[in-house]
Amino acid sequence: MLLLEEEKRKLVESLWSKGIKDENVLKAIYDIPREKFISNALRKFAYDDNALPIECAQTISQPFTVAFMTQTLEVKPGDKILEIGTGSGYQAAVLNRLGADVYSVERIEKLYENALSLLSELDYKVNLKLDDGTLGWEENAPYDKIIVTAGAPDVPQHLLEQLITGGKLVIPVGDQDMQRLLVVTKTDAGIEKKYYDKFKFVPLIGEEGWKS
Fold first, then answer.
1. Among 40, 172, 180, 199, fewest CB within 10 Å belongs to which?
2. Domains of the chain by start residue, with CATH
3. Chain segment 105-120, per-residue pLDDT in tens
4. Catalytic: 61?
């Protein structure tokens, strides 16, 4: 247990040195048991700052990527947040730990079932749906913020329509090999865009994403 706490501390210090200054985000990364979201065989790597494979040829994102996207989203307690791409459920857990009301959509049934079970077991309150995430989750719209955890060719129009005016959407946009992180702020006059560094995500598959 002491070794685990030391690994968590080193990870948080590493994230801080890389520019993650939001103390609430760092505390969420420290508090959430990332080892629970990966296979037993990979648990010794749980607090390395690397992406790791999960089932169905998908990945759990690098902790820095999760922290950077979350910090960029500027999550506040009570925010209603739509996540596209539940995956392991780790990003959703981080958002919920920060006090957000989280709605998460996953297209792969096995990952949806795994996340549903694990998030419930760990007592994270996340609303999950099995569906095409590029279409969002219209029944519960609008959302204060939207986070997309897969690389898209462009911003899905359905997601923009489900974002409140004044809301923020974070999405990796590019080709299937590399993307830039795009932050979209929806205003009365239209949308404002800001690009950040390059990242690599699994492709966003769906009607408004890449074709499977």
1. 40
2. 2-199 (3.40.50.150)
3. 999 999 999 999 999 9
4. yes
